[in-house]
Amino acid sequence: MDQSDETLTLAAANGDRQAFALLVGRVYDKVFAYAYRVTGNRAEAEDLAQDICAALPVKLRSYRGEARVSTWLYRITVNAARDRFRRSATYARAAAGWGEVEIARRAEDAEQAERADWLRCAMQGLGAELREVLALVLDGVTQAEAASILDIPPGTVAWRVSEAKRQLKAMTQGAEA
Questions:
Q1: In degrees to the nearest 10, what's the CA dihedral of 98, 85, 46, 12?
Q2: What's residue 97's pLDDT?
Q3: Which CA distances in Å does 83 have to 49, 78, 79, 80, 170?
Q4: CB contact at 8 A, 172 and 165
Q5: 61: left (phi over 0), alpha (psi -120 to 50) or beta
Q6: Exposed site from 20, 85, 101, 137, fewest CB < 10 Å?
Q7: Half-sphere exposure of 49 toward its Cβ, with a 13 Å CA cutoff?
C-alpha cells in the first residue's frame, strides 16, 4: 500500500484494523529506536514500545491530523518515557526509604538485644533474693503479687527492687568508667 502515515492513522482511528496493523508495522521501529536512545536499555525500550503500541488504539482518538504522524508518535513516546522514569524514580525513592527504615529497625533491635543481654548478665551479679524479685517485676508482676508469690512482706519487695536498681546503676557507672 502506498498510503501515507497520516491516511493510515486516520483510517485506524476510524476502526480500520488493517490500517492499524500497517501503521504499527511502519512506526514500531521508530518508536523502539527512540525509546532505546532515551532509556539506554534494550529491555526497557521494548517494554516502552510495546506499551505505546498497546495504548495506540485509544491514543488514535486524539490524533487530529494537525501534525505529522511521526511528530505525534514522538510526543507520545516522550510522554510515556517521562511517565516511566517518574514511576521508576518514585519506586526507587520509596525503596530507598524502606531500606533506611529497615536499617534503623535492625539497629534498634540490635540495641535492645544488647541491653537485654547486659541486664541478663548484670542480674547474675545480684544476690539471689534481689534477682528473684527483679525478675518478677520485669515480667510485669506487681510488687504486691511478687510479695504473695515469694511469701514476703510488700515492703521487703519494694526495698529489694530499690536495692537491685541501685546495684545495677552502680554496675552501669562502673562499666562507663
A1: 130
A2: 64
A3: 13, 9, 6, 5, 61
A4: no
A5: alpha
A6: 101
A7: 22
Instruction: Give the helix/strand (H/E) hosting 133.
Output: helix 128-138
Q: Which residue has the cell 539497629?
A: 107
pLDDT score of 94: 67
- Closest alpha carbon to 28 in 59, 3, 51: 51
Look-up of cell digits 532515551: 38
| C-alpha distance from residue 117 to each of 35, 46, 61, 129 (Å) | 56, 55, 68, 20
Q: CA quadruple 112, 115, 119, 120: dihedral positive or negative?
A: positive
- Give the per-residue SS3 of 134-169: HHHHHCCCCHHHHHHHHCCCHHHHHHHHHHHHHHHH
Of 59, 32, 31, 56, the residue nearest 43 (C-alpha): 32
Q: What is the Cα–Cα distance from 177 to 173, expressed in whole angstroms?
A: 6
- At 97, the amino acid letter reads G
Mean pLDDT by 10 residues, the chain (177 residues): 82 89 90 86 90 88 81 86 82 68 82 87 88 88 89 93 92 73
Contact indicator for 127, 110 with CB cutoff of 8 Å: no
Please choose, from the candidates 92, 164, 78, the residue with its C-alpha nearest in 3D space to the C-alpha of residue 127. 164
**H or E element in which residue 25 lies:** helix 17-39
